[in-house]
Each structure stands twice: as structure tokens, then as C-alpha cells.
Amino acid sequence: MRTRGRAPGATKGGGAGPVRAPRTGGAAVLRMTDLHRGVADPVMDTMNFLNEVTLHHPEAISFGPGRPHEDFFDTEQIFAHVRRFLDHLAAQGRSPAEVRSAMCQYGPSAGLIRELVADSLRVDEDIDVPAESVVVTVGCQEAMFLALRALISGPDDVLLVSSPCYVGITGAARLLDAEVVAVEERADGLSCADVEAAVLAERLRGRRPRALYVIPDHSNPSGVTMPLETRRELLALADRFDLYILEDSPYRLVSPGARVPALKALDRGRRVIHLGSYAKSLFPGARVGYAVADQTVSRADGTTGLLADELAKIKSMITVNTSPLSQAAVAGALLASRGRVSELTEEAAAHYGRTMRAALRALEREFPAERRSRLGVSWNAPGGGFFLTLRVAFRADDAALGRSARDFGVIWTPMSHFHPDGGGDHTIRLSTSYLTHADVEEGLRRLADFIESEVAAAQRRGC
């Protein structure tokens, strides 16, 4: 009942009453300003924007998605992998009821297959850690969230990232209210001198650089691989400045040739939290990743444990546990290969290497020296992975992508999406993983025509 003499919504003291959300057709409407600020961050629109461009132009050849090629998937093999893992559990002495429970009930937050993951890392990557240091996650994206939530403990803690940088980590940081400090990559990748300068600058500001996120092998988006000497320098720097390294390397086992040792394989001071995934090496639909967190945590009660224990606690409040069926499919593949995922991916790695080389040859053909110079085009030449970058003389923004897709039938990714502090306006990312050689060649022919058109239009405008 309304109080006599008081305006609707007014308080007893005469001030404004509670602000009510606007209504449309009787339903409450939330304002964006009422939601977490991370939701409105432009980085959140990147994935949806690129998906929408592809959906709106289905006939276009797309160098956008960083997906594995579907010819390497076998649906029937998934059932065989699950069966193999069930037999493995039975061989360990589990009763039929225990096997059923393992598959159908909630499982341990840290994962069912930690031992198999640890064994695989030992034989395939020379990463020797106890199974207790592994947390099996819902893809690598969850592993990032867990690591950031654990490490970023106050408003003065910051996350260092390379620029350009994978949007998944910057998006996760925004949603967790973690400040991101970008360290600009050079042509040959991240410089330890630049990382050190960023650490010192943040300390002068009264902030604590807590962790550095890197993709050291065939990185997304730039395609650059960190040299061995830089890896050693980075580990020494981390020791010196009490910095942790979040190592994300999804492309190592799907790239041809010899591999530079993973940062975690070189880590003697336990400075590296290794973030892994089976999305590229097995299949993305499993949504199985992991974090290797073997750092010691000293608790207030005087006991010690592993950082992995704390990540598992956080996970228990987010996804509870990773799907046992998904873990079973991955575990079966690990058992079939005796942990050597590199043997399972040998054919795929060779394919991706051939496709990358086909793209580089096509770029040379479409842009011979004279045309390259006239149009202001240059590119890098990764030895593996899914991505390469192409520099152009015009502004390669979302509007330019729209013209490219609509008028020339070719899709690419503006690199500006990957620069947290701005930049990349004249560079595009090309993903070669999902295309046939014929599509790569035709797509790059269309891209060359688009670039020619854009440069001519800029010249007409007098730019």
C-alpha cells in the first residue's frame, strides 16, 4: 500500500527510490552498464564477429578459423577409444560397478586421467612432473581462467602478454578484473629486454607483474616461434623478478620438423605453468585440456601442497569436473599411442606443413618482387602451426574485411583484434589449417585482387 503524501519511488528522506530497470512489453531490460565491464570489452566480440562474417558469406574462401582439418577425425574411433579406456580401468581391478560410476557419475575435480596425461608429457615432451600436478580442464580456456584466478590476487597484480596476443587470454583477464600490460612483439618475436623493461615500469608504478602469457611455438596470431636461447633467457628473467610464465603451446604436436624444447621442459625453478589442450592434436569436440601446476604452495597452517590442488578447488566451483566421457575418449587415444600423441599427429603435422608451404609459394607467385614493392606487401614465413601474417599498405580493419568478403569472396582476420593496446591496423592474419591446397591458391588469388583494389582506391583518394 502506498504511503499517503509520498511520491511513487520516493524514500522517506525525500531522495530517489531504488532505480528500476526499464521495461519493454512488461519484461525487465538490463542495461549494459549494469553488467560486468568485461562483457562490453571489444575483445568479447571478436569470435562472434568472425563467425558472423563467415555465415554471411558462405561462398567465400575463409582464412579466418584456426581449426584443425576434419579429414583427420574419425567418429567410429571415438567409440574405440572409450572402450579402450573402460578396459584399462577393468584391467586395473575396477569392478563393473566402479567402472560405471567412473563414467556416469561426477568425477574428481582434478580429473580421472591425470596419470595418463603426465605419462604422455614425459614421453612426448620431456616434461617430468607428478600426476598430482596435473588438473584436467574443459579445454585450455578453462586452464587459463584457473591459473589467472589463482595468481592474480589483488588490484595491483598485472598480467603481461605479448602484443599481438591470443584473444582468449585477454578476454579471460578482463572478466577476472585482471589488468593486462602488453609487451610489443618484434619481427622475430618477444624480446626479453622488452619484458624486463615492462616489469620494471610496472614496479615503478607500484604494481606487481605476476605472470607472463606466451605461446612460444608457432604462436596465434603471429606464427612466430621463440628461439631456444630466448626461452632460457626468459626463464632466468622469471627467476630474477619472481614472475610466473603461462605457457600455452597447442601447435607443437601438429607442426612438422624438430621441436624446440617446451619452456616447461627447461623449467628448473618451477616458474612455468604449462597450459595444454587436445583440441588440435586429437579433436576439439572433446573439450579436454589441462594445466601443469607443480609449484609448491605454503599454507597458513604451516602445511604445503601443490598449486594444482588450489586450481582444482577453483574448478570445483566453476565446472565441478571435466566430462568423464570426454576424458575417456582422450585417454583411449593416449593408451593406443602409449602416450606419444606425436605419433597420432604425424600425418596431420605433415599435412599442415605442406599447406603452409603451399600458401607461402602462392604468396610468392601472386606477389612477385615488383608487385610486392608497388603494393607495399610483406609477410612472415612460419615453419609450422596454423597462422601467418601479411602486412599491407592500407587500413585492414573490419570494414575492409567486409569489402573483401562481399566483393572478392575471401575472408581473413584483422590483426587489430589481437593488440590489447591498439595496433596491427595494417596487418592481417591468414589461417591455412582448414583449407585444401586448391582453396589456398584460389583464396590468395582473390586476396591479391582485393589488395590491388584497396591500394588503387587509396591512391585515388590521395592517401
Q: Strand content of the residues, in percent? A: 5-15%
User: What class, by secondary structure content?
Assistant: alpha/beta
- Put simply, the count of helices is 16
| Shape, principal axes of CA atoms | globular
Query: What is the multimeric organization of the chains shown?
Result: single chain
Looking across the biggest beta sheet, what order are the strands in?
4-10-9-8-7-5-6
Low-pLDDT parts are 1-16
Brief overview:
By secondary structure, the chain is α/β, with parallel strands linked by helices. Helices cover 41% and strands 14% of the residues.
Task: Label this structure with key terms.
463 residues, alpha/beta, 7-stranded mixed β-sheet, 4-stranded antiparallel β-sheet
Model description:
With 463 residues, the chain is of the alpha/beta class. Helices cover 41% and strands 14% of the residues. It is built from 16 helices and 17 strands. The protein has helices at residues 46-56, 75-91, 96-104, 114-125, 139-151, 167-175, 192-204, 228-241, 263-266, 307-316, 324-336, 341-344, 346-366, 369-375, 398-408, 437-460, and strands spanning 23-24, 27-28, 61-62, 134-137, 157-163, 179-184, 208-214, 244-248, 272-277, 289-292, 296-298, 304-306, 378-379, 387-391, 410-411, 413-414, 427-431. The strands form 5 sheets. The chain has a 7-stranded mixed beta sheet, with helices on both faces. The chain has a 4-stranded antiparallel beta sheet with strand order 13-14-17-16, with no helix packed on it. A two-stranded antiparallel sheet has the order 1-2. β7 (208-214), α8 and β8 (244-248) form a beta-alpha-beta unit. It is globular, with a radius of gyration of 25 Å. The model is unreliable at 1-16 (pLDDT under 50).
